[in-house]
Amino acid sequence: MLDLIIIGSGPAALSAAIYVAREHMETVVFERKTVGGLLAGIDKIENYTGFVAGSGAELAKVMRTQAEHFGAKIKYGEVTEVKKRGEVFELTVDGESVKARAVLVATGSEPAKLGIDGEDLKGISYCATCDGAFFDGKTVAVIGGANSAVQEALFLLKFVKKVFLISHSAIKSSETLKKQLKEAVKAQKIEVLENIEPKRFVSDGEMTTEKQRAQAKTATNVEHKPCVARVIVEDKGKEREVKIDGAFIFVGHRPATTFLAGTDVELSEKGAIVTDGNLMTKVAGLFAAGSVRAGAVDQVITVAGDGAAAAVSIRKYLQK
Ligand SMILES: Cc1cc2nc3c(=O)[nH]c(=O)nc-3n(C[C@H](O)[C@H](O)[C@H](O)COP(=O)(O)OP(=O)(O)OC[C@H]3O[C@@H](n4cnc5c(N)ncnc54)[C@H](O)[C@@H]3O)c2cc1C
């Protein structure tokens, strides 16, 4: 049986893994998607102490190397269930059962959806780093008005011809980003549509003929989804359309905790995990760290500290 299972491999998880691996605790980190978590997708990171500037992927790689250097085991696998039987945790990972004496949940967050019609059309994405290159020379909409939306709109200019930055309120980003945004607006690369509500995405009719659907299905062997071609927005009570080739949605994140259903873990109103001062949940031996934790500051430097603090508490818990 393992001493500890860490769920997720973002900066919170990797920091905790460095601490526990140095103390020779039998630990496995399970990651369902990308080692490094959201950090691995950040184009440029300038506010992590001791790392002057570089990509999030570079910083994530350094964290992973450091954790593995001390013996941390990182495996791919999605945790779908957590149960506690007596003093032992039993987790379901890709359908298999794995046991440990303690668990650290560091699963971060998932992109929030707008919840409007057409959001499942082809060409709609929640990750500029992953999908930006598919829109070379095209026009895209970025939906959102806070730091992530502005940062990603600026990043997309590496590929796209033009960005419509559509926000239901005034832009609320940091002053540094506002300054960069102003430059891009001046260069006519970004057009800001503030106080405008996206109502639905609409596909390009030309892409949805029976023949095209049949051709696409044969080519990919999957159900063809038509491409987004317009976003219908509400502007001062009237609907109008904005022509686009793609859309990127950055309207916040929600904590990734579905696998905790059926446990006694307390969640906040926003769905984040409530812990005590030792980062332990209401379930003894089940800890949480990083952006999935209620009250955590959602920045790489702070979640890394959270992971380290959780590791210290876990060591004390396991030594009891
Ligand atoms: C666009 C954008 C730009 C940002 N820019 C900055 C910046 O410049 N500076 C900064 O400090 N912060 C920035 N942030 C915030 C930063 O990315 C987060 O604070 C940080 O990544 C949170 O780390 P975490 O370890 O808590 O979770 P995450 O990074 O979200 O990692 C959680 C991991 O858990 C995995 N996971 C989830 N559920 C399961 C499961 N059931 N089984 C297995 N694995 C699972 C996920 O796949 C993910 O890899 C930015 C965020 C975004 C979205």
Under CATH, the topology of the largest domain is which? FAD/NAD(P)-binding domain
Number of helices: 7
Give the C-level CATH assignment of the largest domain: Alpha Beta
Question: Gyration radius, to the nearest Å?
Answer: 22 Å
Shape: elongated
Strand content: 25-35%
Structural class determined from secondary elements: alpha/beta
How would you state the average pLDDT, rounded? Answer: 93
Total number of beta strands? 17
Major beta sheet, specifics?
7 strands, mixed
Overall helicity: 25-40%
Poorly predicted spans: none
The CATH architecture category of the largest domain equals: 3-Layer(bba) Sandwich
Give me the strand/helix succession.
EHEHEEEEEEHEHEHEEHEEEEEH
CATH superfamily of the largest domain: FAD/NAD(P)-binding domain
Describe the 3D structure:
The chain is 26% helix and 28% strand. By secondary structure, the chain is an alpha/beta fold. It has two domains: 177 residues, FAD/NAD(P)-binding domain, CATH 3.50.50.60; 126 residues, FAD/NAD(P)-binding domain. The strands form four sheets. Strands 1, 2, 3, 4, 5, 6 and 17 form a seven-stranded mixed sheet that branches. Helix 1 runs parallel beside helix 2 and helix 1 runs parallel beside helix 7. The longest helix has 20 residues. The protein is elongated, with a radius of gyration of 22 Å. The chain starts with a strand and ends with a helix. The structure holds flavin-adenine dinucleotide.
